[in-house]
Amino acid sequence: MQDDVWSPPPVLLTVDLVILTLRESRLHVLLVERGGDPFRGMAALPGGFLNHDGEEILDAAHRELSEETALAAGWVHLEQLAVYGDSGRDPRGRVVSVAHLAIAPGLPDPVAGTDATDAAWVPAQAVLSGEVELAFDHRRIATDGIEHARTKLEFSALATAFCEESFTIAELQQVYEAVWGTELDTRNFYRKVQAAKGFIIPAGTDRRTTGGRPARLYRAGPKTVLFPPLIRPAPSATEENTRGEEE
Amino acid sequence: MQDDVWSPPPVLLTVDLVILTLRESRLHVLLVERGGDPFRGMAALPGGFLNHDGEEILDAAHRELSEETALAAGWVHLEQLAVYGDSGRDPRGRVVSVAHLAIAPGLPDPVAGTDATDAAWVPAQAVLSGEVELAFDHRRIATDGIEHARTKLEFSALATAFCEESFTIAELQQVYEAVWGTELDTRNFYRKVQAAKGFIIPAGTDRRTTGGRPARLYRAGPKTVLFPPLIRPAPSATEENTRGEEE
DNA sequence: GGAATAGTGTCTTTAAGACACTATCAA
DNA sequence: TTGATAGTGTCTTAAAGACACTATTCC
Is residue A212 predicted with pLDDT exceeding 90? Predict the structure, then answer.
């Protein structure tokens, strides 16, 4: 079946990042303009090759993240999403990408990174709808990443990763509304976030004001698994995207 | 930052398989005995390198699966789990593994495959507990795979992948009990599987008998997403494994 | 009739959804 | 006092958990 001198085919590894944040109460993805071939000039997810043979994949993701966002490494949520390795996905050869999901509070305008001539926050909706074209299979990766975030919001405390260290319940609700692309009932939302013990805990006696009654401040609690979860409302058939439940 | 002639470090890609099945109403994992170095003679997950540069990752997983189980490719559930690429995980160098989860109905005793001198079904519990030692980081991969299956049973129709084409509700309950490692209330289970419309549908007028009242037969329905889901009971603190909910 | 397995019905509790009012601040 | 934002309470419905009996077959 295989030669005596057969040796496995090497591949090149990249990390690609779906970096999500909220800007003006809407979900945005960070995209870069590709500075080199292939797909020069086209929008793409930030990412790049491993630096050297010993670099850990997660370290590479952190490195790319800080190159693109100039962010303190400890403060953002970063997790592996999936591998994309179809043989035809990169014209340069066999390039396998480990996609990561990164989530951060409202970020400043990005700085141009090493491989990018330009970087910008783009509304997630523009990527999902196909209005913005992406290089490689990056639209698929971005779509998977956004869907992953939407699901994880239901069962984990991920939403707090979109917030500053302390935040109001109204701000937290805006996170859910922006990521899910729905509107939520304030009263039920208050009830549910407080029923999930350990999700958020009061942050001192601090308050903040913007004209009306001052809001209580909270910070992320110790629990990462929400119980009961905050199930997102089923999209009402007329929505933007229908969840595929049929086989 | 990088040389003019810098080029990205190549890595070797493997696929590893967490193959789950039910034997004697207990969850089992397929393990092989390694026939070559490193870890010669130690138990490991089935898997191997990509065959040639153009081979798709999923195809490689299917190939390894049929090499180990001699199974019709179309009948098993196979999905990507995650990537394991820590630089120290393989003494041969930088070997990155794409782990897959495979689930199949009760399988015959395995046939020895290409790289394996022996293969055997091992109770999942023996792997989770550490009673069986695995090569590389395969215990971690197997643990992640089992946990993935446990969670997916809650929200998807995955359980039917453990069953033959037609099955009884009692058999389906055994799947849940074996994978979760819990006992379930028969009456509530009947109610819940039937409340999840599209999960199972009656299979003709067929019945099967084993001494008592004949059972109705069902087959997998069109829905892959269960609503309402079948939430697994919270492990009661005294259980084998406690779910980490704290950070 | 008895053993064995299949299948169902009810009550209570928990959580979700829908819905409208009160509270606290600044100007 | 008005405008703005924060926060709460109730009723109804859906689903989970606990629990015990009836149904159909073979012997």
Answer: no
| pLDDT number for residue B106 | 80
At A245, is the pLDDT very low, low, confident or very high (cuts 50, 70, 90)? very low
* Full-model pTM: 0.92
Fold of A158-246: Arc Repressor Mutant, subunit A (1.10.10)
Tell me the average pLDDT of chain B.
Answer: 89
Average pLDDT of chain A to the nearest whole number: 89
Give the whole-angstrom CA distance, residue B129 versus residue B189. 28
pLDDT class for B242, splitting at 50, 70, 90? very low
Residue ranges per structural domain of chain A: 12-153, 158-246
Distance from CA of A212 to the nearest CA of B (A): 35
Contact call for A10 and B11, based on CB within 8 A: yes
Mutate to test the interface with A, among B86, B87, B97 (most CBs of A within 10 A): B87
Residue pair A222/B246 in contact by the 8 Å Cβ criterion: yes
Q: Which of A83, A225, A243 lies closest to B57 in CB terms?
A: A83
pLDDT of residue B229: 97
Q: Is the shortest CB-to-strand distance from B188 to strand D under 7 Å?
A: yes
- Taking CB atoms and an 8 Å limit, are B87 and A56 in contact across chains? yes
Mean pLDDT of A160-182: 96
Q: Measure CA to C1' and name the residue nearest D23.
A: B213
- B130: DSSP letter: T
- Residues A33, A138 contacting (CB under 8 angstroms): no
Cβ separation A83–B83 shorter than 8 A: yes
Main-chain dihedrals φ then ψ at residue B54, nearest 5 degrees: -90, 0
C1' of nucleotide C17: residue with nearest CA: A188
- Distance separating alpha carbons of residues A61 and A30, to the nearest angstrom: 14
Q: Does the bond joining A38 to the residue before it have cis omega, within 30 degrees of 0?
A: yes
**What is the model's pLDDT at position A5?**
81
**Is pLDDT larger for residue B211 or for residue A12?**
A12
Closest C-alpha among B155, B8, B79 to residue A231: B155
For residue B77, list chain A residues with Cβ-Cβ distance below 8 A: none
Please name the residues between 187 and 206 in chain B that touch chain A, using a CB distance below 8 Å: 198
Q: Which residues of chain A neighbour B14 with C-beta distances below 8 Å?
A: 8
Helix axes B169-180, B186-195, angle to 10 degrees: 110
Q: Identify the residue whose Cα has the smallest distance to the C1' of D14.
A: B228
Please say if the pLDDT value at position B239 is more than 50: no
Q: In this predicted structure, what is the pLDDT of residue A156? A: 98
CA of A241 to C1' of D9 (A): 35
Cis peptide bond upstream of B9, omega within 30: no
We find that the CATH architecture of domain A12-153 is Alpha-Beta Complex (3.90)
